Write the C-alpha coordinates for this entry.
Amino acid sequence: MTTTALPPAPALPTARGPLSARVLTALAAPGPLAVLDTAGVAAADPYGEDPQLALYALYELHYRGFAGVPDEREWEPALMPLRRALEDRFLAALRADVPGGGSAAEVLGALLVEPAGHSGSVAYHLEHEGTKEQLREYAALRSLYHLKEADPHQWVIPRLTGRAKAGMVAIEYDEYGAGRAEHMHARLFADLMTDLGLETRYGHYVDAAPAPALAVVNLMTLLGLRRALRGALVGHFACVEVTSSPGSRRLAAAMRRTGAGPAAEHFYAEHVEADAVHEQVVRREVIGGLLAEEPGLEADVAFGAEATTLLEDHLSTHLLTAWRAGRPALRQPG
Ligand SMILES: [Fe+2]
Ligand SMILES: [Fe+2]
Protein backbone atom coordinates (compact mmCIF):
# COMPACT_ATOMS: atom_id res chain seq x y z
CA MET A 1 0.00 0.00 0.00
CA THR A 2 1.29 3.43 -0.83
CA THR A 3 0.57 6.50 1.25
CA THR A 4 0.66 10.01 -0.10
CA ALA A 5 0.92 13.12 2.03
CA LEU A 6 -2.16 15.33 1.96
CA PRO A 7 -1.53 18.27 -0.39
CA PRO A 8 -1.14 21.58 1.42
CA ALA A 9 -4.29 23.65 1.94
CA PRO A 10 -4.59 26.65 -0.39
CA ALA A 11 -3.41 30.11 0.59
CA LEU A 12 -6.01 32.65 1.64
CA PRO A 13 -7.27 34.66 -1.33
CA THR A 14 -6.90 38.43 -1.67
CA ALA A 15 -9.75 40.63 -0.38
CA ARG A 16 -12.00 42.45 -2.89
CA GLY A 17 -13.63 44.95 -0.52
CA PRO A 18 -14.51 45.54 3.14
CA LEU A 19 -16.61 42.41 3.70
CA SER A 20 -14.07 39.96 2.32
CA ALA A 21 -11.28 41.88 4.08
CA ARG A 22 -13.15 41.49 7.38
CA VAL A 23 -13.46 37.74 6.86
CA LEU A 24 -9.93 37.13 5.59
CA THR A 25 -8.35 39.23 8.34
CA ALA A 26 -10.30 37.30 10.97
CA LEU A 27 -9.37 33.93 9.48
CA ALA A 28 -5.69 34.81 9.55
CA ALA A 29 -5.79 36.35 13.05
CA PRO A 30 -4.30 34.34 15.91
CA GLY A 31 -6.23 33.70 19.13
CA PRO A 32 -9.90 34.19 20.01
CA LEU A 33 -12.06 36.20 17.61
CA ALA A 34 -14.49 38.99 18.39
CA VAL A 35 -17.84 38.60 16.62
CA LEU A 36 -17.58 39.91 13.06
CA ASP A 37 -19.71 42.92 12.25
CA THR A 38 -22.44 42.49 9.65
CA ALA A 39 -22.34 46.17 8.60
CA GLY A 40 -22.34 46.69 4.86
CA VAL A 41 -24.03 43.43 3.89
CA ALA A 42 -27.48 44.91 3.28
CA ALA A 43 -26.10 47.63 1.00
CA ALA A 44 -23.78 45.36 -1.01
CA ASP A 45 -24.63 43.96 -4.44
CA PRO A 46 -25.54 40.38 -3.44
CA TYR A 47 -23.86 39.03 -6.59
CA GLY A 48 -20.85 41.34 -6.30
CA GLU A 49 -17.16 40.52 -5.94
CA ASP A 50 -16.84 41.44 -2.27
CA PRO A 51 -19.74 39.51 -0.68
CA GLN A 52 -19.25 36.51 -2.95
CA LEU A 53 -15.58 36.19 -2.01
CA ALA A 54 -16.43 36.67 1.70
CA LEU A 55 -18.94 33.83 1.49
CA TYR A 56 -16.60 31.66 -0.58
CA ALA A 57 -13.82 32.01 2.00
CA LEU A 58 -16.17 31.13 4.88
CA TYR A 59 -17.47 28.10 3.00
CA GLU A 60 -14.01 26.78 2.18
CA LEU A 61 -13.59 26.12 5.90
CA HIS A 62 -16.02 23.22 5.37
CA TYR A 63 -13.94 21.74 2.54
CA ARG A 64 -10.15 21.95 2.67
CA GLY A 65 -9.63 25.12 4.72
CA PHE A 66 -6.66 27.42 4.17
CA ALA A 67 -2.99 27.25 5.03
CA GLY A 68 -2.40 28.95 8.38
CA VAL A 69 -6.10 28.92 9.40
CA PRO A 70 -6.87 26.51 12.29
CA ASP A 71 -9.33 23.73 11.38
CA GLU A 72 -11.43 24.72 14.42
CA ARG A 73 -12.39 27.97 12.69
CA GLU A 74 -14.94 25.93 10.68
CA TRP A 75 -17.44 26.19 13.55
CA GLU A 76 -16.19 29.45 15.05
CA PRO A 77 -19.28 31.22 16.48
CA ALA A 78 -17.78 34.67 15.86
CA LEU A 79 -17.96 34.06 12.09
CA MET A 80 -21.57 32.87 12.01
CA PRO A 81 -23.55 36.14 12.19
CA LEU A 82 -21.71 37.58 9.17
CA ARG A 83 -21.99 34.33 7.28
CA ARG A 84 -25.70 34.15 8.01
CA ALA A 85 -26.21 37.77 6.89
CA LEU A 86 -24.31 37.12 3.63
CA GLU A 87 -26.31 33.96 2.97
CA ASP A 88 -29.65 35.61 3.69
CA ARG A 89 -28.84 38.53 1.39
CA PHE A 90 -27.80 36.14 -1.40
CA LEU A 91 -30.86 33.93 -0.93
CA ALA A 92 -33.27 36.87 -0.84
CA ALA A 93 -31.82 38.17 -4.12
CA LEU A 94 -32.13 34.76 -5.75
CA ARG A 95 -35.72 34.33 -4.60
CA ALA A 96 -36.58 37.76 -5.96
CA ASP A 97 -34.80 37.23 -9.30
CA VAL A 98 -35.94 33.75 -10.37
CA PRO A 99 -39.10 33.53 -12.48
CA GLY A 100 -40.93 31.31 -9.92
CA GLY A 101 -44.40 29.86 -10.14
CA GLY A 102 -43.56 26.73 -12.17
CA SER A 103 -43.66 23.14 -10.96
CA ALA A 104 -40.41 21.17 -10.67
CA ALA A 105 -41.35 19.15 -13.78
CA GLU A 106 -42.05 22.33 -15.79
CA VAL A 107 -38.80 23.97 -14.74
CA LEU A 108 -36.70 20.90 -15.53
CA GLY A 109 -38.60 20.27 -18.77
CA ALA A 110 -37.74 23.77 -19.95
CA LEU A 111 -34.02 23.01 -19.46
CA LEU A 112 -34.23 20.29 -22.09
CA VAL A 113 -35.02 22.83 -24.79
CA GLU A 114 -31.92 24.62 -26.04
CA PRO A 115 -32.76 28.21 -27.01
CA ALA A 116 -32.61 28.87 -30.76
CA GLY A 117 -29.58 30.81 -31.91
CA HIS A 118 -27.38 29.67 -29.00
CA SER A 119 -26.20 33.25 -28.56
CA GLY A 120 -26.00 32.89 -24.76
CA SER A 121 -24.38 29.44 -24.71
CA VAL A 122 -20.76 29.22 -23.63
CA ALA A 123 -20.58 25.54 -24.63
CA TYR A 124 -21.84 26.40 -28.14
CA HIS A 125 -19.33 29.23 -28.44
CA LEU A 126 -16.45 27.04 -27.32
CA GLU A 127 -17.53 24.21 -29.62
CA HIS A 128 -17.57 26.39 -32.73
CA GLU A 129 -15.14 29.24 -32.24
CA GLY A 130 -13.53 29.04 -28.82
CA THR A 131 -9.79 29.46 -28.71
CA LYS A 132 -7.49 27.26 -26.68
CA GLU A 133 -6.96 30.19 -24.31
CA GLN A 134 -10.72 30.52 -23.79
CA LEU A 135 -10.92 26.81 -23.02
CA ARG A 136 -8.14 27.29 -20.49
CA GLU A 137 -10.01 30.15 -18.87
CA TYR A 138 -13.21 28.13 -18.80
CA ALA A 139 -11.47 25.16 -17.16
CA ALA A 140 -9.68 27.39 -14.64
CA LEU A 141 -13.02 28.87 -13.50
CA ARG A 142 -14.81 25.54 -13.44
CA SER A 143 -11.98 24.05 -11.37
CA LEU A 144 -13.47 25.75 -8.31
CA TYR A 145 -16.22 23.15 -8.45
CA HIS A 146 -14.78 20.27 -10.45
CA LEU A 147 -11.74 19.78 -8.21
CA LYS A 148 -14.24 19.08 -5.43
CA GLU A 149 -16.84 17.60 -7.76
CA ALA A 150 -19.83 16.10 -5.94
CA ASP A 151 -18.63 17.24 -2.49
CA PRO A 152 -21.22 20.02 -1.98
CA HIS A 153 -24.03 17.62 -2.87
CA GLN A 154 -23.06 15.03 -0.25
CA TRP A 155 -24.41 17.08 2.61
CA VAL A 156 -27.97 16.42 1.47
CA ILE A 157 -27.69 12.64 1.88
CA PRO A 158 -28.44 12.47 5.63
CA ARG A 159 -31.46 14.70 5.00
CA LEU A 160 -33.03 12.29 2.50
CA THR A 161 -34.68 8.90 2.96
CA GLY A 162 -35.80 5.98 0.83
CA ARG A 163 -35.70 6.31 -2.98
CA ALA A 164 -34.32 9.84 -2.92
CA LYS A 165 -31.37 8.80 -0.74
CA ALA A 166 -30.68 5.60 -2.69
CA GLY A 167 -30.81 7.43 -6.04
CA MET A 168 -28.58 10.23 -4.83
CA VAL A 169 -25.97 7.81 -3.50
CA ALA A 170 -26.06 5.79 -6.74
CA ILE A 171 -25.22 8.92 -8.76
CA GLU A 172 -22.57 10.09 -6.34
CA TYR A 173 -20.92 6.67 -6.44
CA ASP A 174 -20.21 7.33 -10.12
CA GLU A 175 -19.01 10.88 -9.43
CA TYR A 176 -16.52 9.45 -6.94
CA GLY A 177 -15.14 6.96 -9.43
CA ALA A 178 -17.17 3.87 -8.44
CA GLY A 179 -14.49 2.78 -5.99
CA ARG A 180 -11.48 3.76 -8.11
CA ALA A 181 -9.59 6.89 -7.20
CA GLU A 182 -8.24 7.33 -10.72
CA HIS A 183 -11.82 7.49 -12.05
CA MET A 184 -13.07 10.13 -9.63
CA HIS A 185 -14.48 13.00 -11.63
CA ALA A 186 -12.39 15.47 -9.62
CA ARG A 187 -9.33 13.49 -10.68
CA LEU A 188 -10.46 13.36 -14.32
CA PHE A 189 -10.80 17.13 -14.20
CA ALA A 190 -7.29 17.53 -12.80
CA ASP A 191 -6.09 15.42 -15.75
CA LEU A 192 -7.99 17.73 -18.11
CA MET A 193 -6.26 20.72 -16.51
CA THR A 194 -2.88 19.08 -17.02
CA ASP A 195 -3.66 18.64 -20.72
CA LEU A 196 -4.48 22.34 -20.91
CA GLY A 197 -1.29 23.32 -19.10
CA LEU A 198 -3.17 24.57 -16.03
CA GLU A 199 -2.18 24.36 -12.38
CA THR A 200 -4.11 21.50 -10.74
CA ARG A 201 -3.62 22.55 -7.12
CA TYR A 202 -6.93 22.88 -5.25
CA GLY A 203 -7.95 26.51 -4.87
CA HIS A 204 -5.28 27.87 -7.19
CA TYR A 205 -7.68 29.89 -9.36
CA VAL A 206 -9.86 31.49 -6.67
CA ASP A 207 -8.20 34.90 -7.03
CA ALA A 208 -8.70 34.70 -10.80
CA ALA A 209 -12.39 33.80 -10.50
CA PRO A 210 -14.84 36.68 -10.96
CA ALA A 211 -17.94 36.92 -8.78
CA PRO A 212 -20.27 35.02 -11.18
CA ALA A 213 -17.95 31.99 -11.00
CA LEU A 214 -17.81 32.17 -7.19
CA ALA A 215 -21.60 32.56 -6.95
CA VAL A 216 -22.25 29.32 -8.85
CA VAL A 217 -20.19 27.39 -6.29
CA ASN A 218 -21.49 29.35 -3.31
CA LEU A 219 -25.03 28.39 -4.24
CA MET A 220 -24.25 24.67 -4.08
CA THR A 221 -22.51 25.02 -0.73
CA LEU A 222 -25.31 27.13 0.71
CA LEU A 223 -27.99 24.66 -0.38
CA GLY A 224 -25.90 21.71 0.77
CA LEU A 225 -25.22 23.06 4.24
CA ARG A 226 -28.75 24.11 5.17
CA ARG A 227 -31.13 21.25 5.82
CA ALA A 228 -34.08 23.61 5.36
CA LEU A 229 -32.96 23.98 1.74
CA ARG A 230 -32.72 20.25 0.95
CA GLY A 231 -35.45 20.55 -1.68
CA ALA A 232 -33.56 23.37 -3.39
CA LEU A 233 -30.32 21.34 -3.28
CA VAL A 234 -32.09 18.50 -5.08
CA GLY A 235 -33.48 20.95 -7.65
CA HIS A 236 -30.02 22.43 -8.16
CA PHE A 237 -28.51 18.98 -8.56
CA ALA A 238 -31.17 17.98 -11.07
CA CYS A 239 -30.46 21.13 -13.07
CA VAL A 240 -26.75 20.26 -13.20
CA GLU A 241 -27.40 16.69 -14.32
CA VAL A 242 -30.09 17.59 -16.89
CA THR A 243 -27.98 20.24 -18.61
CA SER A 244 -24.66 18.41 -18.34
CA SER A 245 -25.01 15.82 -21.08
CA PRO A 246 -25.74 18.17 -24.05
CA GLY A 247 -23.26 20.76 -22.75
CA SER A 248 -20.58 18.13 -22.27
CA ARG A 249 -21.04 16.93 -25.85
CA ARG A 250 -20.24 20.44 -27.10
CA LEU A 251 -17.29 20.82 -24.74
CA ALA A 252 -15.84 17.45 -25.76
CA ALA A 253 -16.11 18.64 -29.37
CA ALA A 254 -14.36 21.89 -28.43
CA MET A 255 -11.50 19.97 -26.83
CA ARG A 256 -11.23 17.74 -29.90
CA ARG A 257 -11.31 20.65 -32.36
CA THR A 258 -8.57 22.53 -30.54
CA GLY A 259 -6.42 19.44 -29.96
CA ALA A 260 -6.50 20.01 -26.22
CA GLY A 261 -5.53 16.43 -25.46
CA PRO A 262 -7.05 13.04 -24.62
CA ALA A 263 -7.73 13.68 -20.93
CA ALA A 264 -9.34 17.04 -21.72
CA GLU A 265 -11.68 15.38 -24.19
CA HIS A 266 -12.28 12.39 -21.92
CA PHE A 267 -13.62 14.41 -19.00
CA TYR A 268 -16.48 15.78 -21.09
CA ALA A 269 -17.01 12.61 -23.15
CA GLU A 270 -17.42 10.71 -19.87
CA HIS A 271 -20.11 13.19 -18.78
CA VAL A 272 -22.09 12.81 -22.02
CA GLU A 273 -22.69 9.17 -21.17
CA ALA A 274 -22.80 9.29 -17.37
CA ASP A 275 -25.09 12.30 -17.06
CA ALA A 276 -27.62 10.98 -19.57
CA VAL A 277 -28.14 8.17 -17.03
CA HIS A 278 -27.87 10.47 -14.00
CA GLU A 279 -30.57 12.70 -15.45
CA GLN A 280 -33.03 9.82 -15.48
CA VAL A 281 -32.15 8.72 -11.95
CA VAL A 282 -32.35 12.21 -10.52
CA ARG A 283 -35.74 12.91 -12.06
CA ARG A 284 -37.37 9.56 -11.29
CA GLU A 285 -35.77 8.51 -8.02
CA VAL A 286 -34.32 11.58 -6.34
CA ILE A 287 -36.99 14.17 -7.15
CA GLY A 288 -39.78 11.58 -7.48
CA GLY A 289 -38.82 9.97 -4.17
CA LEU A 290 -38.38 13.26 -2.33
CA LEU A 291 -41.69 14.73 -3.47
CA ALA A 292 -43.56 11.50 -2.73
CA GLU A 293 -42.38 11.82 0.87
CA GLU A 294 -42.35 15.59 1.19
CA PRO A 295 -44.73 17.12 -1.38
CA GLY A 296 -44.41 20.48 0.35
CA LEU A 297 -40.88 20.82 -1.07
CA GLU A 298 -42.04 21.10 -4.70
CA ALA A 299 -41.60 24.89 -4.87
CA ASP A 300 -38.12 24.61 -3.35
CA VAL A 301 -37.06 22.00 -5.92
CA ALA A 302 -38.14 24.38 -8.67
CA PHE A 303 -36.37 27.27 -6.92
CA GLY A 304 -33.08 25.34 -6.71
CA ALA A 305 -33.16 24.62 -10.43
CA GLU A 306 -34.12 28.19 -11.36
CA ALA A 307 -31.49 29.75 -9.08
CA THR A 308 -28.84 27.56 -10.71
CA THR A 309 -29.96 28.60 -14.18
CA LEU A 310 -29.94 32.27 -13.17
CA LEU A 311 -26.37 32.12 -11.83
CA GLU A 312 -25.16 30.06 -14.79
CA ASP A 313 -26.66 32.72 -17.07
CA HIS A 314 -24.77 35.43 -15.17
CA LEU A 315 -21.55 33.48 -15.65
CA SER A 316 -22.25 32.88 -19.35
CA THR A 317 -22.90 36.60 -19.87
CA HIS A 318 -19.64 37.45 -18.12
CA LEU A 319 -17.61 35.00 -20.20
CA LEU A 320 -19.16 35.79 -23.58
CA THR A 321 -19.05 39.56 -23.03
CA ALA A 322 -15.35 39.40 -22.23
CA TRP A 323 -14.46 37.04 -25.07
CA ARG A 324 -16.50 38.90 -27.70
CA ALA A 325 -14.69 42.08 -26.67
CA GLY A 326 -11.34 40.28 -27.02
CA ARG A 327 -10.69 40.51 -23.28
CA PRO A 328 -9.70 37.74 -20.85
CA ALA A 329 -12.56 36.53 -18.62
CA LEU A 330 -10.33 35.83 -15.63
CA ARG A 331 -9.52 38.50 -13.07
CA GLN A 332 -6.03 39.78 -13.66
CA PRO A 333 -3.60 39.99 -10.73
CA GLY A 334 -2.60 43.34 -9.27
FE1 LIG B 1 -19.29 14.26 -12.83
FE1 LIG C 1 -23.38 13.39 -13.09
Residues 171, 175, 241, 244, 274-275, 278 surround fe (ii) ion (ligand 2) (CB under 6 Å). The longest helix spans residues 262-293. The chain has a mean pLDDT of 96.
